[in-house]
Amino acid sequence: MVLYRVILGLLLPVLLLIRLLRGETWADLGQRLGLAPRGMGDQRLWLHGASNGEVTSARWLIEDLLAARPGLQILITSNTRTARQMVRDWALPGVVAALAPVDLQWPTQRLLTRWQPVALISLEAELWPNRFAACAGRGLPVLLIGARMSPRSFRRWQWLPAFPTRALGFVRFASAQDDGSRRHLAALGLGTLGADFDLKAASVARLPAPDLPPRERRAGWLLAASTHDGEEAMVLDAFAAQTQFRQLILAPRHPARAAAVAALLTARKVTFNRRSTGAMPGEATVFLADSMGEMDQWYRHAGACIIGGSFADKGGHTPWEPSRFACALLHGPSTWNFGALFTALDAAGAAFPVTADSLAPALSTMTAAAQDRMALRAKAILQSKGDETGLLTQILTHSRL
User: Fold this and answer.
1) How many Å apart are CA 71 and CA 74, to the nearest integer?
2) Which residues make beta-bridge pairs with 185?
3) Whole-structure pTM over 0.85, yes or no?
4) What secondary structure, in 3-state letters, does 317-357 show?
5) How high is the pLDDT of residue 129?
6) Element (H, E) at 272
7) How far is Cα 355 from Cα 343, in angstroms, rounded to an integer?
8) What angle do CA 341, 288, 282 make, to 5 degrees?
């Protein structure tokens, strides 16, 4: 812990300069140094999530907390400006958004003094030793909700076991995201673990069922969602070799890569349209979804979805959203972001594990009836993983709200 503090303290001026060069304002840097808004009222909570995904998955929980405790104020911190702006755009009464303080004692103490929270809730995989220690030093409970510890992260932490063990020692209550995370966290010294809980599953399960076209209209559409470099070429090869799907939607994880993907399509003499030109899926064989915030539209069009990031060693992206839209799921071997979940989906026949070589044959077997069977099995798993019974009560109890 001492070495961590010394190194981070020495690097702080460099880190702040980098932030300035990346467009952050002096006010932004002030928040990173603990200049959070001042709290008002009798009850205030601090909730932290790394970025958009973590914070979005907890919106339903935030709304439940506000409903359960009228007058409650919640400071939501995140590491990114986009997540902060997203929370501001929600305009939830009693909710204030700020950038998270640097994980040093004095910025954290400054935030605690200004906001005066009764507890800190940290979402998913975030471990912050100085932050947790500062809260514990003031007698404030630290709660981890949906805590995740992948096999890869666990192996890395094992090189410095005292570091996570000290941080986890300040945690009053935790719920792991899955059984694997539970075992890894316990091995690193986390003693108090409630029932496993997946925030993303609960957030998706709570959404209303989408109005979907008949399966017959979707069965010929294939979506490759959130793809990374190299995955588009692999998908195009498999799509050309299979016999089931007539049209393909390519949705790169980062729209900034759209020009490179378009160049790949042009080089292969593939007829395609682009969302950035105002087009929608329909006429061309391939549709390049080079936009932000419209993924639900593409899930709605598709009968099956190839999970991006699972062939490019990125750990795979979420299966929850395509499952909500009744897409049959295919994924590659890299699934450590959702390892236990993909294992459960595969075992239930709700997802199809493939390699680059076996993708085309697998696609050729995915008739409309097969897509329906897989989608129904995935829906059942989503509902079971998203059961939030008792979580709110546990949070209210352990945070002393």
Assistant:
1) 10
2) none
3) no
4) CCCHHHHHCCCEEEECCCCHHHHHHHHHHHHCCCEEECCCC
5) 86
6) strand 272-274
7) 15
8) 100
6: tokens are: 């010394």
Lowest mean pLDDT among 189-198, 282-291, 303-312: 189-198
Q: In what order do the strands lie in the sheet with 247-252?
A: 272-274, 286-288, 247-252, 221-227, 304-307, 328-331, 351-353
pLDDT digits (tens, 9 = 90+) for 227-278: 999 999 999 999 999 999 999 999 999 888 999 999 999 999 999 999 999 9
* Tokens, residue 132: 């947790």
C-alpha 166/C-alpha 164 separation (Å) is: 5
Residue 216: partners with Cβ closer than 8 Å, 6 or more residues away: 368
Among candidate residues 202, 198, 211, the one with its CA nearest the CA of residue 296 = 211
Mean pLDDT calculated for residue range 140-149:
91
Provide the 3-class DSSP secondary structure of residue 301. helix
pLDDT at 42: 81
